[in-house]
Each structure stands twice: as structure tokens, then as C-alpha cells.
């Protein structure tokens, strides 16, 4: 009997010992992780010790400060109270330095000590190092002025389609929410100009699905950034938001794949391939399809789709934001709207044929567009990771590996840079006016500035000119837009305008 008992207790003792060892090992690992977190937090505190900020919670940081729909207003107050930059704690061990000073911007953007902070990704917007340089050099010819010139009439064609639709709609209701219409128009334009698409995208259901998917991805991105439990990819994919994000990505990629497949099919038509090859300058997508890497191979499907994804998103959503806010700004400043209209009427008459040469002959309209972009920058902020230590002009510094957020919105509303920043004053951009080289950054700055900034400015000029020739714009006093901090600046309640057809 005693032998039998021993034979059972020895294995049990072994299991108990293993559990004790496992518990001790787990506890040791937990202590090690806690020590790592503590040391990292101390490193972060030391890095930002010379940058004052509002008081923060030890765990939730400044999250509460930025969850009441007043993010942009809070950033403006920071710019007024804390010179140049201030730390923003997201939670526990996560802090970003919010930058809103032109001298600081120049240091960060000018010497390229940084890389985009968007997690792993592809496309010109997210690439780093030599691969970014190769893709930038490869795609720059797509924005040569010889390429951009014939785009003007394509832009005008898309704008006329939208304005005709507006004429029909105002017979039923003179108040319109314009952002969705402008988004469809800018998507139609980028499809025609950069991707050789024939026809109109503004009436297709797939275009509306794509625009909704992009909006969903933007909202989900901001929601994820502010949730400490959603930072792990595996956990996030299991959540309802993670599954929603996956579906939206699939919809966006389906649209991109369709564009690539259609263009490839067009190039396989008899004679089309050689005709395109013989062109001196190629459109954006054709450059990608004909491109060769340093080893002589064509771009991978992954790289090809990533560049098309980036161009499709950047080429329509940011421009739609810019145009919508410009129209709203002119609606709320009728005297400036009328001065722009008079300038355009003298230049274009009825606007039947707007050309490349006209775009440089509307100085006051251009001033108003730039001032609207100052008040409502399409990209309100960009994040960067420091690849090396940097020192700012005032002597304060940051170590390698630190993350900074360049708050373009706060920069444009910084009273130390722009006196009376909330006032609409186009004279800031009068010919010959002087300002800091990095005080106005609607298209970012430095080597990584927006590659399509000339394309975007051209499109805004065409749209504004043709709209003002056809409609008088009046704001809807019952629905004042609420600027909303997203990847692209939106209005939380839409942008509603009253349109009056001009005789």
C-alpha cells in the first residue's frame, strides 16, 4: 500500500515543482518587463523635460484632453501657451512632441533626420531610405508641366459635370452638402488624369463605395491610435473595429486593382502599347507599369498597388478637402468672393475654355485659395520618427528614436507666427509679401513635400473659377462646419452651402 502511494505522489510532486518554476519564471519576466517600461518612461521624461505641457494622467496621459471633439482648439491653445512645441502623452509610455513653430519645422523637414511614422507600409507616402528616393525620382516626371498642361481641360470637364448636377439639385433644395460631391469630382479627375480612365466616375456606385471606405479607414485609424488595447495587430484584428478596418481595406484595394487591371487591358490593345511607349512624358500609372528597378525587373504587384493606393487617396481626398474649405471660406466672405469673381469674369468670360495659361493670371483668386488653405490645411498634421538626434535653434534637443507630430493646423493658427490667425486675410499672400519659409505648409515641406502640389493647386484654381462663374455661394447659418481632426481635415457635420444660380 505504501509503495502504491509513493508511486502517485512523486509525479504530483514533479508537476508541482514545474508549476513553481513556471510561476517564478513568469514573475521574473513580469518584473523584467516592468523594469523595461519604467526605464523607457524615464527616458521619455528626460527627453521632454525642457518642453512644458499641461498636466497629464500617469496612465491615460492627455487622452481626455483630445476626446471631447475639441482637438484642434486644444492644439491652438497649446501653441499660444507653450512656445514652439509641447509633449502630448497618449498613455503610459507613449508620448509625441507636438510641433507648431516654423523654425522647428525647418529643422525637422529640412535636413531629413526623420522618417514617416505610420507603421509598416508601402507607397511614396510611407517608404523610407533608398527605396523612397528611387520611387520619388521615378514618379517626379509624372508631374512635369508638359504632363500637367493638358490635364486642365480634363479637370474642367469633371467640374462641369459636378456643376451641372448642382444646378439640377438646387431646383429641389438650394442648400447642399458639398463635400461628397467634390470628393466624387476629384476622384473623377485623378482617374482621368493619372490613370487614363475614360468616362465619368461621378455617377458610379463603386466610386461612392471607395470614398466611404477611405472615410471609414481614416476614422478607424484615429480610433485605434487612441486605444492602448488596439496597438497589437493580432488583438486588433479580433475586435469589431479591426474586422471593419479589414473590410474597408478590401474595398479600397478592389477599386485600385480594378484600375490597374483596366489599364493593363487597354495597353494590350493593338498598337496601344507602342503608342504609349513613344510618348515623351507618361501618365502616373503608365510610368509605374513601364518602370524598371535597378536589377531590371518591373515593379512588384505589391509595390505597384501601393503607389496607386497612395496616389488615388492623396490625389482625391486632400484636394476635395482643400476645395470644399475654399468654397466655404469664400461663402463666408462675400466681398472677397465678389473680387475673385470679377477677376475671373474679366479673364475667362463665360469660362467655356479655361487653359493652362489662365492659371497664372488670377492672382487675387490664388491669394484667397492660399489663405483658405492656411485656415483649413487639408492635411492638419504629419508624424515623423527621428533617425538621429536633433537640436533646435533655441538649444533644446531630442534624441534619436523620438516621435514628433508636425501640427500644420496649429502652425497656421499660431498667433506668434500669424497675428490675428482666425481672421481671413488674403493679403498675407500678396505678391512680394514676406514670411518665414516654413510658416505656410499646406503641402508639407523639404524633400518629402507633396509631389502633386502643383496638380492640386491647378485643380483648385479650375474648380473655384468655374464655380464662381456659375454660382453665388452663401453659408448655411444653421449648419456651421465643425473642423474635424482626421488624416485629411473634414467637417464633423459636413459643409453646407446655399447656391444661387447666376444669370
Automatic annotation (TrEMBL):
Gene3D superfamilies: Cytochrome P450. Keywords: Endoplasmic reticulum, Heme, Iron, Membrane, Metal-binding, Monooxygenase, Oxidoreductase. Transmembrane segments: none annotated. It is found in: Endoplasmic reticulum membrane. Heme binds at residue 450. One of its GO terms (cellular component) is endoplasmic reticulum membrane. InterPro entries: Cyt_P450 (IPR001128), Cyt_P450_CS (IPR017972), Cyt_P450_E_grp-I (IPR002401), Cyt_P450_sf (IPR036396), Cytochrome_P450_Monoox (IPR050196). SUPFAM superfamilies: Cytochrome P450. One of its GO terms (biological process) is lipid metabolic process. GO terms for molecular function: heme binding; iron ion binding; oxidoreductase activity, acting on paired donors, with incorporation or reduction of molecular oxygen, reduced flavin or flavoprotein as one donor, and incorporation of one atom of oxygen. Its cofactor is heme. Belongs to the cytochrome P450 family. This is Cytochrome P450 family 4 subfamily A member 37.
Amino acid at each position: 500500500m505504501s509503495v502504491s502511494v509513493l508511486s502517485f505522489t512523486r509525479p504530483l510532486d514533479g508537476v508541482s515543482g514545474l508549476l513553481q518554476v513556471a510561476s517564478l519564471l513568469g514573475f521574473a519576466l513580469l518584473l523584467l518587463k516592468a523594469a523595461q517600461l519604467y526605464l523607457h518612461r524615464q527616458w521619455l521624461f528626460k527627453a521632454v523635460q525642457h518642453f512644458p505641457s499641461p498636466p497629464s494622467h500617469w496612465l491615460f496621459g492627455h487622452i481626455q484632453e483630445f476626446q471631447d471633439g475639441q482637438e484642434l482648439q486644444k492644439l491652438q491653445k497649446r501653441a499660444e501657451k507653450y512656445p514652439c512645441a509641447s509633449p502630448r502623452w497618449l498613455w503610459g509610455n507613449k508620448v509625441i512632441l507636438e510641433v507648431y513653430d516654423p523654425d522647428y519645422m525647418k529643422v525637422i523637414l529640412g535636413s531629413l533626420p526623420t522618417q514617416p511614422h505610420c507603421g509598416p507600409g508601402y507607397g511614396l507616402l510611407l517608404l523610407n531610405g533608398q527605396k523612397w528616393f528611387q520611387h520619388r525620382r521615378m514618379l517626379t516626371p509624372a508631374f512635369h508641366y508638359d504632363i500637367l498642361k493638358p490635364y486642365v481641360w480634363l479637370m474642367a470637364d469633371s467640374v462641369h459635370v459636378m456643376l451641372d448636377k448642382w444646378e439640377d439639385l438646387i431646383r429641389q433644395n438650394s442648400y447642399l452638402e458639398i463635400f461628397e460631391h467634390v470628393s466624387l469630382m476629384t476622384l473623377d479627375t485623378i482617374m482621368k488624369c493619372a490613370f487614363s480612365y475614360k468616362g465619368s466616375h461621378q455617377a458610379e456606385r463603386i466610386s461612392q463605395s471607395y470614398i466611404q471606405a477611405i472615410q471609414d479607414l481614416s476614422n478607424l485609424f484615429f480610433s485605434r491610435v487612441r486605444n492602448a488595447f488596439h496597438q497589437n495587430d493580432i488583438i486588433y484584428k479580433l475586435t469589431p473595429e479591426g474586422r471593419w478596418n479589414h473590410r474597408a481595406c478590401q474595398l479600397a484595394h478592389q477599386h485600385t486593382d480594378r484600375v490597374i487591371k483596366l489599364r493593363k487591358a487597354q495597353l494590350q490593345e493593338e498598337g496601344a502599347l507602342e503608342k504609349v511607349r513613344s510618348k515623351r512624358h507618361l501618365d502616373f500609372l503608365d510610368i509605374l507599369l513601364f518602370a524598371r528597378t535597378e536589377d531590371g525587373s518591373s515593379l512588384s504587384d505589391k509595390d505597384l498597388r501601393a503607389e496607386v493606393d497612395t496616389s488615388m487617396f492623396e490625389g482625391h481626398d486632400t484636394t476635395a478637402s482643400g476645395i470644399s474649405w475654399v468654397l466655404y471660406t469664400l461663402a463666408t466672405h462675400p466681398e472677397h468672393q465678389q473680387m475673385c469673381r470679377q477677376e475671373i469674369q474679366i479673364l475667362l468670360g463665360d469660362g467655356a475654355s479655361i487653359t493652362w495659361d489662365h492659371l497664372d493670371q488670377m492672382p487675387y483668386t490664388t491669394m484667397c485659395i492660399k489663405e483658405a488653405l492656411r485656415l483649413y490645411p487639408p492635411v492638419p498634421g504629419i508624424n515623423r520618427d527621428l533617425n538621429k538626434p536633433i537640436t533646435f535653434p533655441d538649444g533644446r534637443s531630442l534624441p534619436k528614436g523620438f516621435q514628433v507630430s508636425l501640427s500644420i493646423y496649429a502652425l497656421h493658427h499660431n498667433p506668434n507666427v500669424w497675428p490675428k490667425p482666425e481672421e481671413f486675410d488674403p493679403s498675407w499672400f500678396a505678391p512680394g509679401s514676406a514670411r518665414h519659409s516654413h510658416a505656410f505648409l499646406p503641402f508639407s515641406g523639404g524633400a518629402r513635400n507633396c509631389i502633386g502640389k502643383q496638380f492640386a493647386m491647378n485643380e483648385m484654381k479650375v474648380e473655384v473659377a468655374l464655380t464662381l462663374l456659375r454660382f453665388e455661394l452663401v453659408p448655411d447659418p444653421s449648419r456651421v462646419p465643425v473642423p474635424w481632426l482626421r488624416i485629411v481635415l473634414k467637417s464633423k457635420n459636413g459643409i453646407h452651402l446655399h447656391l444661387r444660380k447666376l444669370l
